[in-house]
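Lecture 7 notes: from sequence to structure.
We start with the chain below.
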Amino acid sequence: MNYVMKIALISLLSAALFAEDILPLSVRVGETTVIKRADPALLGFGTSLIGGWFLLTPGTTEIRTKVYAALKDFPTPLIRLEGTMSQVWNWKKAVGPLESRPEHRIEPWERPGTKRAFGPVEWVTFAKRLNPGVKLVWDINMRESAEDAADLAEFLCGDGQSNPNGGVNWAQKRIECGLAEPVEIFVWELGNELDGSEFWKEFDTIRKYTDKCKAVIHAIKGVLPNARFAPFAATLNQGFDFYKRVYGGTWEIWHRTVLRDLVAEMDSIDYVMLHPYFGGVGTLYQKTWDMDIIPAIAADIREITGSDRIKIFLSEYAFWPPYEDPAEKWDAFFYKSHALVGCLQNAEWLNRMLARKEVSIAALHNLGGTFTSPWGIIYPDRRDYGSDPEYYLTGIAPMMRMFNSMLANNGNSVRVELEGEQTDKTSRRCLVTAAAVALDESIFLSLVNRDPDVARNVAFSAEKTYALSSETILTADDIDAYNTMTNRPLKSVIHRANDIKPFSNYLLGARSFVVLHLVKK
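Predicted structure tokens for the same chain:
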């Protein structure tokens, strides 16, 4: 009995044992129909300079060695400095020896004397140790002056010899802080959700935002002539009607005005940012972001700029845990963001985005780990916040590793067609998605089944004939299963098949994410 028949038999017996229903699913891969290059930077993630304290040994600016050990082999193609706090945080108060840094309280609950120990030098050091070739994205504080942004560019990217801004030689200060080499910033984000609930009153006209964008772009380019930028599209965290009330139009008025106002700066803009959150109260369905909002922004980019050169950067995205019991506080459901239900939601989103040629790069929200918000890839032991806690990874980590196995080989995202129940991506009821990356001699096929109870009997076809080399599976007995320090049900399991028979059938279990590696016969 060959490997595929064995797996199919085992899967069928398992489905029967756990009383799972089975529905048919047709999967056809068109491996010569290329959508886009499969960029590993789609697997980026965000870090917060506010939340970064949990990475540090208390009272120092040193990253704990156990953090690096926990994140060993975790894919880090792109790391973004992110979040609402990026717009209230002053980088100049977070450089130099810790004892000489001034108080910089940001949250009302922070103690007097609080200093920012995790600053730009620590952030760069952390990112570069994880991956020396990482793409770094910095979210500029647009509530500070354009001159401050230029000083930041000099601090991070200057050579220490020239001093284009005059005054303080900020690059030399970076060198004195122990970061000898200039830092390459892949793209500078122009603010974070300034049309959102926290800051919109300061930016109650779009012109206020675009005027600030122009000033910041010109200031940074005075230091770094080749700097690249990304303004943001509508945040949409206050609903569609908000844009009519405040800005006088539909939600599209924000990005359309930005694109038109920044026409003189367009050669320096590579991306428009978007922050899709999905799954919870106040968020939009995946199908709305995927099938309505992203295509609308892409169409306006083409119409206003005359080309599709500018792509969409999903600089924050995540599954938003729903409020399931009004009697409970929201934090009772935080775990769902990285439980199996959240992992499958995020995996579906990446499947969808691999099929979107308009979307180039992304940053999952976020590295996390502080228990004060729902999202996280790494957490310290909650039982011990001492000087040297142990760390563990949530189910997001194996999910991202599985996608990295698809994207790390310079392949192409190619067409996949599905037929079967709950495969319509335009429907709220969509539960099954797929994506494929084609290499010269093989295909990686990603299958996501969010249905908690119903398996799918897959009938596979492609333009060429393939055999199954391996399968990697992420699943659990419970859709709400999640990792803790002492219990880690969410881990990927790899089965090496090396089968010689043509691959044509597969049983996709309920509540599962699977990556199949198929080699050309």
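Points to note: The mean pLDDT is 93. The chain has eleven helices and 20 strands.
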